[in-house]
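The protein record filed here:
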Amino acid sequence: MQIVRTVIWVLLLVGLLLFSIANWDPTVTVRIWQGIVVDTKIPAIVIVSFAIGFVPMWLYHRASKWRLQRKIQSLENAARTTAATPVAKHNSDDEVATDHRATETPLQSSSDDGYTGVSARPGHYGEDDTRA
């Protein structure tokens, strides 16, 4: 991608050079305000016009790229910190469930045998299940 950018800039500069050589002789009078008149060459007007249009957009682009890079770095650091932080072990022996029904899943029953007649995995049938 860098080579494409370099080729475009070189072509732009070669075109500007050829334009400047072809249009150097005529002098143009530019009236800026009521009392300010400037005699200048056409290539100077073209270069200044290009700079007036290009530089603000280039600065805006660089500022937004810088801001987004900072945001990406911040998110990467947060993800890296989260990944490096050890997770505390959960001891299930310390905690006693007071309500057995609160820990049930919809496929489990509260009976002692644990059989619901419904397969826990869709498409798989147990020994007692039959296809309808």
Residues 42-84 form the longest helix (43 residues). The chain is about 50% helix and 10% strand. The chain has a mean pLDDT of 79.
